[in-house]
Amino acid sequence: MTKKFKYILIVYIGLAVLLSVFGLYAYQIFFQPNVLAGKQQPVAIFIPPSADFGQVVDSLQAHGAIGDEVSFRFVAKILEYQTLVKPGRYLLQPSMTNLAVVRKLRSGAQDPVKVTFNNVRIKRDLAGKICRNLLADSAKFLALLNSPTETAKLGFDTTTILAMFQPNTYEMYWTVDEVVLLKKMQKEYEKFWTAARKAKAEEIGLSPIKVVILASIVEAETKKRAEAKLIAGLYMNRLLQNMPLQADPTVIYGIGNFGIRRLTFADLTFDSPYNTYKYTGLPPGPINLPPIPAVEAVLNYDRNKYIFMCAKEDFSGYHVFAETFEEHKVNAAKFRSALDRAGIR
Q: Please, what sign has the CA dihedral across residues 246, 305, 292, 209?
């Protein structure tokens, strides 16, 4: 073996070693876990629309998400992510590789946010709850709900628009804007109002919006699901006979004092379109966002002959029902006595 051959062999071996070392390092940079190493729970990273690559790295570091920042930056540079930052909420899983994270962020593959709203009475509360975990601005969303032009586009007005929202949990992207958010809720409303449900509403002589308005009254009157169809039937009887609904929750809604526990004569004479003691028919809009069971209770209301109801004197939350005013007077007297004994004024 000549010296020249030995020299060439040494060079080749050296290059092979260097290539192996570089290959191993490159493999580690791209394919070995570098995110949330040793941790069990995923981490959500929020990248606002105006963020640049430096802010993304700062956010990752602040959450303790990446182990080796240099290798992450290297992979990001190779994939040109530094100029392709996309806003959104991204859920990073434990032991993700640099390559997986950069590809996820670069593609804008957001993970949705769960949006839940219930126990809503007024539009301001709805806007606050629905936008709470979103980038959408609650004030701008409320402005849309109060806009005659925008609500008309959806088939509602500024009073009935609440009927479009059903309490539930929805998945949305964090970056959704106010207009898209409103349109998404319209799609959910249309999805709920199937041909079968619309046919039931038509059968009982109510539009879908009026079904929701009546369901909101039923929901306000009782939390006992077993009573919902009975109460819906009672109010349908009153509507069919053109009698005032005389629903206390609508009076309270019109007054705007939701802490009232016992209505006075002055309350019952308060002039509001929601005062169903003064005005016959349904109020102009829902007094809360009724859940699906309350809507179904109206669509499938109990065909009874009840005209009156009164809360039970045991404060159980249940009601006693009556077909005649004479029966009702007896029930009402018992309940008033119970209120007096409890000191509820």
A: negative
- The pLDDT score that the predictor gives to residue 217 is 98
Find the helix packing angle between 225-240 and 292-299, rounded to 10°: 50
Q: State how beta strands 113-117 and 96-97 pair.
A: unpaired
Contacts of residue 178, defined as CB under 8 A and 6 or more positions apart, other chains included, come to 131, 136, 137, 140, 141, 144
**pLDDT 10s digits, 187-231:** 999 999 999 999 999 999 999 999 999 999 999 999 899 999 999
- Would you state the structure tokens that stand for residue 23, as one six-digit string? 């290959």
Average pLDDT over residues 309-316: 90
User: Alpha-carbon distance 121 to 241, whole Å?
Assistant: 28
Task: Tell me the C-alpha distance between 80 and 85, whole Å.
Answer: 9
Judge whether 130 and 113 are in contact, CB under 8 Å: no
pLDDT above 70 coverage of the chain, percent: 90
CA angle 97, 101, 104 (to 5 degrees): 140
Q: Among 3.30.565.10, 3.40.50.2000, 3.30.1490.480, 3.50.50.60, what is the CATH number of 29-107?
A: 3.30.1490.480
Question: What is the domain partition of the chain in residue ranges?
Answer: 29-107, 113-192, 217-306
The string of pLDDT tens digits covering residues 164-188 is: 999 999 999 999 999 999 999 999 9
Q: Which tokens is 326 given?
A: 């004479």
